[in-house]
Write a structure and sequence with these properties.
InterPro entries: 4CMD/NDH-1_regulator (IPR052512), AhpD-like (IPR029032), CMD-like (IPR003779). Residues 17-100 form the Carboxymuconolactone decarboxylase-like domain. This is 4-carboxymuconolactone decarboxylase. Helix 3 (39-52) runs parallel beside helix 5 and helix 5 (73-87) runs antiparallel to helix 6. With 110 residues, the chain is mainly α. The mean pLDDT is 95. The protein has six helices and no strands.
């Protein structure tokens, strides 16, 4: 049997194994795999929700995942800019700062 990819951080896997299990099997193994939205669209929805709710701990991971899932840097910049007027300027500025750091890091590593 093929082992599923683990999304929960290793520290959470050790400290809260049930939370890690449902993160890996329910959230990413079921919800993210449903056919109603593409992974790209799910990423865009997730990033905007996390930015709007100021959930910065998870936002960085999901910004990277959005880029992996085909959301472009320009689309993320535009979505976050648009969000500023609905979810608040500080939320958008924090999200944009995280996105810039991710893009800068990717450019430096090639």
């Amino acid at each position: 049997m093929t082992e599923r990819k683990k999304f929960a951080p290793p520290a959470i896997q050790e400290f809260a194994p049930k939370l890690a299990e449902v993160t890996d099997t329910v959230l990413f193994g079921d919800i993210w795999e449903r056919p109603g939205l593409s992974p790209r669209d799910r990423s865009l929805v997730t990033v905007t929700a996390l930015a709007a709710l100021y959930r910065t701990d998870q936002l960085g991971f999901h910004l990277g995942k959005a880029l992996e899932n085909g959301v472009t840097e320009d689309e993320l910049v535009e979505a976050i800019t648009h969000l500023a007027f609905y979810a608040g300027w500080p939320n958008a500025m924090s999200a944009m700062t995280q996105l810039k750091a991710i893009v800068d890091k990717a450019e430096q590593s090639g």
